[in-house]
Design brief:
Strand content: under 5%
Helix content: 55-70%
Order of helices and strands: HHHHHH
Number of strands: 0
Distance between the termini: 85 Å
Shape: flat
Radius of gyration: 42 Å
């Protein structure tokens, strides 16, 4: 890369001071600094994207290895089950005789047949008023009128 020591940087600064001039040098330095910052951010974004793609490739490889292992396990289970069935079919016993009896089906849901209107109507009005339960529907205009702040006109 570039070997920029203190001497080379000082020489670049002196040349820039002579060529650009002392009035425009701070503005040019700010512009160069912002451009370098943008370039660094762009390079960092590219590096991050490359790292993400590399991690994605690694994850894909890991996924394929896990899927292969799962297929191998599934195949071994199927072969073991088929061998087990062959052993019992050869001895005359059936698998249904060895299996446990099925459990009874779950009970069917029955509605309790309660009258919810009666239950709501049994709540006292004072309790509803205290807890803010609405008992009457208000129209939009009535709601606006109810919550409109009242102004007091003072006559001086």
């Amino acid at each position: 890369m570039l070997d920029l020591g203190i001497e080379k940087l000082a020489l670049i600064g002196v040349v820039a001071l002579i060529v650009i001039g002392p009035e425009k040098l701070p503005r040019v330095a700010r512009t160069v600094g912002t451009l370098l910052g943008k370039a660094q951010r762009y390079v960092n974004d590219v590096k991050a994207e490359v790292n993400r793609s590399m991690e994605l490739d690694e994850l894909r490889k890991m996924k394929t290895t896990v899927e292969d292992a799962a297929r191998d396990v599934e195949h071994s289970i199927h072969t073991g089950a088929s061998e087990f069935e062959k052993q019992f079919s050869g001895s005359g016993e059936t698998l249904s005789a060895l299996a446990e009896p099925e459990p009874p089906p779950p009970p069917v849901y029955r509605h309790p047949r309660k009258n919810w209107r009666l239950k709501q109507g049994a709540t006292p009005q004072w309790y509803k008023a205290r807890n803010g339960v609405r008992t009457k529907a208000l129209s939009g205009a009535a709601r606006v009128a109810r919550f409109r702040p009242h102004t007091i006109n003072k006559i001086d």
